[in-house]
Amino acid sequence: MNKKKQNILSKCAIILYGPPGSGKGTQSKLLSEKLNLFNLDTGAILRQILNDPKNKNNKEIQKEKIINNAGILNTPSFVLKILAEKTKQLSKMGQSIIYSGSPRTMFEAFGDSKNPGLLNILKKEYGKQNIKIIAIEIPESETIRRNSTRVICSVCKTPVLKQFSKIKTCPFCDGKMEYRKDDNKNIIKTRLKEYKERTLPILLKAEKDKYKIIKINGSPAPFMVYKKLLEYF
């Protein structure tokens, strides 16, 4: 990236939304590498914490693990605490951030009288004018198709649609490919319902509050979606 582009994107925050299987994780990774952003993938961070053997005796974390495995969004206060701490650390370093799928609930986004939500924190740390919210949109049928036919690298977490490849190892890092526990049709439908009922309202309120909202068609091939996203930077 050239110096001019670095200056333009200095201290910005991008929030990337989309239903399960929309490719937000892939696009976050691509944009983070292209624009020098810290890729804060909340789902990956949560799975790391929840599946860490060191936390097997932590009652709160084990409770959250059960919730996560069922396809239900984790307790908002639990997630917000993790997001707030990480965001403030990165802001102090002068690092721009891209969030993959977070904040996922109204509480995580806007907080309450005692707890500032992530958007409040970002507005203070980065400035409202430097916050972009991107919504990748795909039909419900495509969500179910993609999630029920994909495998994930056990090491770098890169997703691959199994119908297009019979590979057993990751093409990027040679890690073993495996199914995610929450990638079955019943759990996918639960996750989709959670997204519609608990995450989409954030976009409506953010739009009302005059945040910059960008809507992208996520149905085309990933490289086409990526090309379209770059038009906004």
Low-confidence residue ranges: 1-8
User: What structural category arises from helix and sheet content?
Assistant: alpha/beta
The CATH homologous superfamily is called P-loop containing nucleotide triphosphate hydrolases
H/E series: HEHEHHHEHHEHEEEHEH
Give average pLDDT, whole number.
87
End-to-end distance: 12 Å
Q: What is the number of helices?
A: 10
**What is the total number of structural domains?**
1
* Gyration radius from CA atoms, angstroms: 17 Å
- Biggest sheet details: 5 strands, parallel
CATH architectural grouping: 3-Layer(aba) Sandwich
Order of strands in the sheet with most strands: 2-3-1-4-8
Query: How many beta-strand segments?
Result: 8
Approximate strand percentage:
5-15%
CATH topology: Rossmann fold
Catalytic activity: AMP + ATP = 2 ADP
Subunit structure: Monomer.
Keywords: ATP-binding, Kinase, Nucleotide biosynthesis, Nucleotide-binding, Transferase
Subcellular location: Cytoplasm
Walk me through what this model shows.
The protein has 10 helices and 8 strands. The chain has 233 residues and is α/β, with parallel strands linked by helices. It has a single domain (3-139, 197-230), classed as 3-Layer(aba) Sandwich (Rossmann fold). The relative contact order is 0.18.
